[in-house]
From TrEMBL:
This is Alpha-amylase. Gene3D superfamilies: Glycosidases, Golgi alpha-mannosidase II. One of its GO terms (biological process) is carbohydrate metabolic process. Its EC number is 3.2.1.1. It catalyses: Endohydrolysis of (1->4)-alpha-D-glucosidic linkages in polysaccharides containing three or more (1->4)-alpha-linked D-glucose units. GO terms for molecular function: alpha-amylase activity; metal ion binding. The lineage of its organism: Eukaryota, Metazoa, Chordata, Craniata, Vertebrata. It comes from Xiphister mucosus (rock stickleback). Residues 1-385 form the Glycosyl hydrolase family 13 catalytic domain. SMART domains: Aamy (SM00642), Aamy_C (SM00632). Its cofactor is Ca(2+); chloride. The keyword Calcium applies.
Length: 450
């Protein structure tokens, strides 16, 4: 997930790094026209407040988007669009042309002429709460029919609204995207999503086989305890498994007596959704800054050693389709456990435009871009995952504490030591006899290992 990257930078990264290292795809930030906010100054979440479906955003214009999709597909890296279809901007978003393409809109009048949506296309008449916002997550109706934190809630049961949403998604499919991360699915009725997905085109045959369908993964925050569950969405596509990163973070932090040795049955044995339904991640753009789900257990780049271990565990383990986070740094200011600066947008120039991503001589990134995907441990584990694909989880070993090891058939083997003492043990790896390359400490260079 190249969070908040510019299209031109993603295109270059596909060609010089992602394609050559076997990365299968990129989740991009929302490409649609969004509100532009001054207070706070250009927050990252302004892109989650659409004002239209024109394809110009903080990351670039439609031509740059098209060029990126083409160049990434040409080197085997698919593009997955973060699709914001539950809502438009906040009810207090004002009126004017403070938008990423300059289109006029009025949040107060619910008027978005560039699409066009009018007051008739929103859910207000269905919402039964006093404020018009979601007040009680124990009530599935208001979670779907009321406003999420004041965001104007689209009436997706209307054929006209479904058509406009599908047109937006189909334009992207025709340009060559491979699928979508669908935002805020918990806040939409599964039947409405099914109707919209049913209108989507097959993928562009320039890059994809005959009748390929878009790959859809749906953001549903389900940590248990609410009436809406991820199961309601799994027949429609993959679903985000938020329990995964929350639990894995607690294990690597050794909270509440959790131990790595307890993960022998990691996956469905931990109460996660079926393997074939899950999209998994150690952290995401929300929960790395305290939004969304997972709380303080989430391990992000701020805890770099634990993050490298947790991401390596995820990439080594067969459960789920995996997503690696690629972040930007911001000036964290924690007061009473809450980051006062959790709103801060990407590295940017004085005029608010997003900075390009410079690549340093040592292959790391500069100017505040973290580029976890370039950390050699993570890059090499992406390669490992591709090598061991389809092989079973095998040859498990643990020390009843925080030292574990497991293999993937006869193709790869990994060892973790999250205890405070050395690990010295002889293990059965399941690998053919020989001398192997340790890809966490070094990497293959030519025919030798660094």
């Amino acid at each position: 997930h190249l969070f908040e990257w510019r299209w031109a930078d993603i295109a270059a990264e596909c060609e010089r790094f992602l394609g050559p290292n076997g990365v299968g795809g990129v989740q991009i930030s929302p490409p649609n026209e969004h509100i532009v906010l001054n207070d706070p100054w250009r927050p990252w979440w302004q892109r989650y407040q659409p004002v239209g479906y024109n394809l110009c955003s903080r990351s670039g214009n439609e031509n740059e988007l098209r060029d990126m999709i083409t160049r990434c597909n040409n080197v085997g890296v698919n593009i997955y669009v973060d699709a914001i279809i539950n809502h438009m901007c906040g009810a207090g978003g004002g009126e004017g042309t403070h938008s990423s393409c300059g289109s006029w809109f009025s949040a107060g009048r619910k008027d978005f002429p560039s699409i066009p949506f009018t007051h008739l296309d929103f859910n207000d008449h269905k919402c039964r709460t006093g404020s018009g916002n979601i007040e009680n997550y124990g009530d599935a109706n208001q979670v779907r029919d009321c406003r999420l934190v004041g965001l104007l809630d689209l009436a997706l049961e209307k054929d006209y609204v479904r058509g406009k949403v599908a047109d937006f998604m189909n334009k992207l499919i025709d340009m060559g995207v491979a699928g979508f991360r669908v935002d805020a699915c918990k806040h939409m009725w599964p039947g409405d999503l099914s109707a919209i997905y049913g209108r989507l085109h097959n993928l562009n045959t320039k890059w994809f086989n005959g009748a390929s369908r878009p790959f859809i993964f749906q953001e549903v925050i389900d940590l248990g305890g609410e009436p809406i569950t991820s199961r309601e969405y799994s027949h429609l596509g993959r679903v985000t498994e938020f329990k995964y990163g929350a639990k894995l973070g607690g294990i690597f932090r050794k909270w509440n007596g959790e131990k790595l040795s307890y993960t022998k049955n990691w996956g469905e044995g931990w109460g996660f959704m079926p393997n074939g339904d899950a999209l998994v991640f150690v952290d995401n753009h929300d929960n790395q800054r305290g939004h969304g789900a997972g709380g303080a257990s989430i391990v992000s780049f701020w805890d770099s050693k634990l993050h490298k271990m947790a991401v390596s565990y995820m990439l080594a383990h067969p459960y789920g389709v995996t997503r690696v986070m690629s972040s930007f740094r911001w000036n964290r200011q924690i007061v009473n456990g809450k980051d006062q600066n959790d709103w801060m947008g990407p590295p940017s120039h004085g005029d608010g435009s997003t900075k390009s991503v410079p690549i340093n001589a040592d292959q790391t990134c500069g100017d505040g871009w973290v580029c976890e995907h370039r950390w050699h441990q993570i890059k090499n584990m992406i390669i490992f995952r591709n090598v061991v694909n389809g092989q079973p989880h095998s040859n498990w070993w643990d020390n009843k504490s925080n030292q574990v090891a497991f293999g993937r058939g006869n193709r790869g083997f990994i060892v973790f030591n999250n205890d405070d003492w050395n690990l010295d043990v002889t293990l059965n790896t399941g690998m053919p006899g020989g001398t192997y390359c340790d890809v966490i400490s070094g990497q293959k260079e030519g025919r030798a290992n660094s």
